[in-house]
Amino acid sequence: MASVSPSSSQALKRDPKIQRDLSLGLGALGSVLLIGTLWYHWVERWPWVEAIYMTVITLTTVGFMEVEPLGNRGRLFTVALILMGVLSIGFMVNRFTETLIQGHFQEEIRRRKWRKQMEALSNHFLIGGFGRIGRQVAQEFQAEGIPFLVIDQSVDAIHAARELGYVALQGDITLDATLIEARVQQAEGLIAALPSDAENLYVVLSARTLNPRIRTIARANTEEALQKLQRAGVAHAISPYITGGKRMAAAALRPRAVDFVDGILSGRDRTFYLEEYELAAQECPYVGQTLQKADLRSRSGALIVAIRRADGQLIGGPSGDTLLQPGDLLLCMGTSEQLRQLGQLLYPLH
């Protein structure tokens, strides 16, 4: 006996029109069965059992002989009964088959699309946990055009992520098998946004074991967790409570400065952006030159706000005499076009 696929069952449950049509078909078939039975019992004066039997074999068109001889009136009614039965059954079969086919093909299309999206992932970010923090991270990545994959154990969370158009994988991100399926070896970074500090720490350690080059950012609920995550090699351990408190204080004391920083760090409708560029001796032609000689500002229009040396030294507002060294991280501000031109100047071979 044919079975109904889960996708088709879900389609039946979700689509009220399909439910209504199938209910209408069942009601029509039941009405035809009742009409035929009553006719043969009351008009033809047959016993109830024979009336029901005649109605069933007529509607199923099995080709059995008449239970008792029928006159012209009875035969005309039987013809009408067959037509009504065929229409009712045909309508039900058509709607049910359409539901099965649509459910099967839609699910297959979704699976193929998901597989292609997974296979195309490279230099992407993994977002572990699709709670309030994970959703906000995904929203910012989407606005920036950054490839990412959402991972969560909850079916509802994964469904919500896919409804928003995100590539999502249902699974336990603390397991190596899930990380491997998420192509952690090809990933650029990991956002551990699970509610548990222990789980975030475990995810970071697992990911760094599978991909030592991966950049990790983790949520921490306490200062102790911050320290443990930093000792585990997390590039950035962030506490929503501590960071939120600092931002609220800054908004109270320096509201315009906070608005400006927010405007260049996040959002879709930004005019200016902040970007960072790391200088490599083999790739950047300006390594060993001063900022004045490189003349990056007039060539691109972008402003170099700060430089972080390879040894950790931070130079804010660098002057024209500042020398560009290998491993320097330039923090730059400008429009998207200005930053694009600056990137081409710094990495002409890319």
UniProtKB/TrEMBL annotation:
Segments forming domain RCK C-terminal: 262-348
Which Gene3D superfamilies does UniProt cross-reference here? 1.10.287.70, NAD(P)-binding Rossmann-like Domain, Regulator of K+ conductance, C-terminal domain
Localization in the cell: Cell membrane
Q: Which UniProt keywords apply?
A: Ion channel, Ion transport, Membrane, Transmembrane, Transmembrane helix, Transport
Q: Which residues form the RCK N-terminal domain?
A: 122-242
Residues annotated as signal peptide: none
In Gene Ontology terms, what is a biological process of this protein? monoatomic ion transmembrane transport
Bilayer-crossing residues are 21-40, 46-64, 76-93
InterPro entries xrefs: K_chnl_dom (IPR013099), NAD(P)-bd_dom_sf (IPR036291), RCK_C (IPR006037), RCK_C_sf (IPR036721), RCK_N (IPR003148), Trk_Ktr_HKT_K-transport (IPR050721)
Pfam families with a match to the protein in the record: Ion_trans_2 (PF07885), TrkA_C (PF02080), TrkA_N (PF02254)
How this chain sits in the membrane, per its record, is: Multi-pass membrane protein
- The protein here is known as Potassium channel protein
Organism (species): Thermostichus vulcanus str. 'Rupite'
